[in-house]
Structures are given as C-alpha cells and as structure tokens.
Design a protein that fits this description.
globular; Rossmann fold; 23% helix; alpha/beta; GMP Synthetase, Chain A, domain 3; seven-stranded mixed beta sheet; six-stranded mixed beta sheet; 11 helices; 29% strand
Length: 422
C-alpha cells in the first residue's frame, strides 16, 4: 500500500478507507508520522464526514471512496496493500506521538470524537511476552471500532496473526475464512455470538479462546458458548471507547466478584450512584470539539454509565443508566429482563423495549427469536410459558406485558442490538 505517508508528516488526518486491509496498512504507516489520525468506520454515514473533519481540524482525508463535494479537505486516495509493516518498530523511532481519534455514538446523532494515543490503546498488552506464533486472532468487530482495534493492536504487538473481518461479507464467508486460517482466539459482542450460534456455520471454527465484550454477557450466552466450544476458554471483558479495557472475567459466570474492583492491576474502579467509574492509563484523554463535555471527572475517573447491582458478593451489570424504562415510577433495565428471557430453553435471543402507555407512562414489551421452528398453534402456549418463567424470576412490573416472536433482531454494525422504543 502507498498512502504517501511522508507527505502527511505532522498533519491531522481522517482515515476513511472502506477496505479494512487498506485501513490496517494505513494505520501502521501513519502512526508516528501524522499528528492526529481519526478512524472513520465504514458503517458511519458519510453525512458526518464534514463534521468529523472540521472537529478534528483535518487537513487531509485518506480514503479509497468517492467523497461528497462539500467536504473541505485535501484528499489522498489509498490502495490496498499487504500491511506487513511493524507498528511497534516504526513507533519506537518516531518523533511524533500520534493522537488516535475513535468515533462513538453521540446523543445528537453526530458521533463523538474520543482521543487516545498508542500508549493508552496498548496499556494492557504485555509487550514482553513471547511471540505468539501459534495464536491466530480474529474478531467480529471492525478494526476502526475500539473493540476491533484493540484486538488488531494486540495481535501486532504480540506477534500473532490476525484474520480481519470485512463488514461486506456474510457470516458464512467470515467463519469459513476463520476456519481456513486456523483462528484460535476470537472476540465479539454477545449479539455477534448469538447470531453466530443460531447459524449452522458456528461449528466450522474450533477456537481455543472465546471473548465477549461490548454488551452484558448473560449466563445464557456463556452457557451456549460452553456447549458449542467445550474445549475453549470463555471470558468476557468490560471495555468501552472512553474507559478502555477495565477488566476481564474468566470464571464463565455473568457479573464479576467484588474483588475485581479493588484488585485489578493498574486500574482504579469504584461504584458511585450505582454506576461504574474507571480510572487508568488505558482511558481516553478527552473528547474533541469546543462544546464537548468533560470525559473525566475532577478525580480523573470516567463515568461509564453502566449500572451495577451487588448480590451475594458479586456485581452484576444490569444495563445502561440512560436506557431505563419507567413503568409507573418503577425503573426497569431492559438488559436485566432480556437476561431472564434468554435463559428460557426455547429462546435464542431477545430485545426488550418500552411502549408508551397512558396510565403507567410505559410498558415493557419484548421481541423474541426462538430456536428452531414454531407452529402457529404452539405459539400461544410458548408465549405463556416464557411469561410464566419471567414471573418466577422478576418483579411484576418488570415482566413484559406482551411478547412478539420475530425471525431476527436488528444488530448494528457495532455488534450491539439496535434499541428503539415502540
């Protein structure tokens, strides 16, 4: 690949390549050369490109696609290459500490620009471990998103190989490639994994390590992965674009023990107002933009917005603080209800949402994907059985008022379920 990296020295650059291999090679070549590198994911609408370029004070857009004419920046076209350059080697001798800017969803519909550097993105990676020549990583994430970028950098820094996913390819094609190249370690969101396990192609791979992140890993998905991959280590990691990687759980149980808060190396954590706060060298430093909110509080902690409940000496992630459904004054976390529904043996995955109600303000309803086929005459009986199961596990106001069986659920390109209220 040739993106004329030497001509971009010291500039602010938006990397907006569609081809993931071109993007990977460009990241390697541009780190330590450019002042700022913004990773623009291919799934993000190009209508935001002007806003991102302006906010990042970008002088160049590195791309392999046609751009809207209103984008006021110089354009350098890139072509795919082999991406064999060594990121660690090039960065060691580099005079610049490149700002790595990742995009995350914003409340206004526009993305937030989150500033990292290579040190924060790789702070949890052991550079001194032996080269992992037998390890082949892959991920359902795009490498322009935090979850995929972290795996990409881990593979580069540890000497492992990596099979890069392509958002344009079907699940069958991706898993076939993963099998062909002998993937040993693979990561994705719980929604990624639920979709994979619902397909016949999940059996094509035989990973040694399965990792979940990005959403709450409930017991149902952990148990399903154990059944599908009996010889694999299965873990779930708490990470976010702003907070970085906070901790990993490897006991195959949902939630995490109390000791994790006080005994995770190089990470300070606390619970304030029932939400998790994180402080470490793995965090982003700030949001870009004149009107952006502060990313850290005055003590240097990031408020993750993830709500926790302590039960019998173990913390459980119950949902996002901003995703609560208010049912007659009672607060309901959709993820908590989904975790119960998903434990029903007939359920593959579910999505809980709010439906407006003139009396209570909102009702809880659920879309449910079941395993296998279901006749019309059996549908009503199964709905009743799932609701009865919920009544045995949840407070009455958390039990869905109605269930709808659907053939599939909308999973965004970030790997998370798309949540829209009815």
């Amino acid at each position: 690949m040739n993106c004329h990296a030497e001509k971009l020295a010291g500039l602010s650059v938006v990397l907006a390549a569609i081809d993931p291999f071109a993007a990977a090679a460009a990241m390697i070549q541009l780190d330590g050369v450019v002042r700022r590198m913004v990773l623009y994911p291919p799934d993000l609408s190009r209508e935001h490109l002007s806003f991102v370029a302006e906010t990042a004070v970008a002088e160049v857009i590195v791309t392999d696609l046609s751009l809207p004419v209103e984008v006021d920046a110089r354009v350098v076209f890139v072509v795919p290459g082999d991406g064999r350059a060594s990121l660690a080697t090039e960065s060691e001798n580099s005079p610049l500490e490149t700002e790595w800017i990742l995009l995350t969803s914003g409340t206004t519909g526009r993305p937030k620009l989150v500033q990292h550097n290579l040190a924060s993105l790789t702070a949890d990676i052991d550079f001194h471990r032996a080269l992992s020549v037998s390890v082949v990583w892959s991920t359902f994430y795009d490498i322009r998103r935090y979850g995929g970028l972290h795996i990409f950098l881990d593979a580069l820094c540890s000497g492992a190989s990596m099979v890069i996913s392509n958002g344009e390819e079907a699940l069958r094609e991706f898993l076939t490639r993963a099998e062909e190249y002998g993937v040993t370690n693979i990561s994705g969101t719980p929604s990624h994994w639920r979709r994979a396990l619902m397909s016949p192609w999940a059996a094509q791979i035989a990973p040694k390590y399965v990792r979940l992140s990005g959403e709450i890993a409930d017991q149902a998905i952990l148990n399903s992965l154990r059944a599908q991959y009996p010889h694999a280590r299965i873990g779930h990691t708490f990470a976010s674009t702003e907070a970085g990687v906070a901790f990993s759980v490897n006991d195959e149980l949902m939630g995490f023990s109390m000791e994790v808060l006080d005994h995770t190396a190089d990470v300070d954590m606390k619970v304030v107002d029932s939400t998790l706060r994180v402080r470490s060298e793995r965090m982003a430093s700030r949001y870009l933009g004149a009107d952006s909110p502060a990313l850290r509080d005055r003590d240097g902690f990031v408020d993750t917005g993830d709500a926790l409940e302590l039960r019998d000496g173990r913390y459980y992630l119950v949902g996002r603080r901003d995703g609560i459904v208010n049912v007659g004054g009672f607060k309901v976390h959709p993820e908590e209800v989904e975790a119960v529904i998903n434990r029903h043996p007939a359920v593959a995955m579910s999505l809980v949402k709010a439906k407006k109600n003139p009396i209570t303000g909102a009702l809880v309803i659920a879309d449910v994907v079941i395993k296998g086929c279901l006749s019309e005459e059996d549908s009503g009986a199964l709905q009743g059985d799932i609701l009865q199961f919920c009544r045995g596990e949840l407070a009455a106001y958390k039990v869905p008022a109605t269930l709808h069986f659907v053939p599939s659920l909308d999973v965004g390109t970030s790997g998370k379920m798309v949540r829209r209220n009815a």
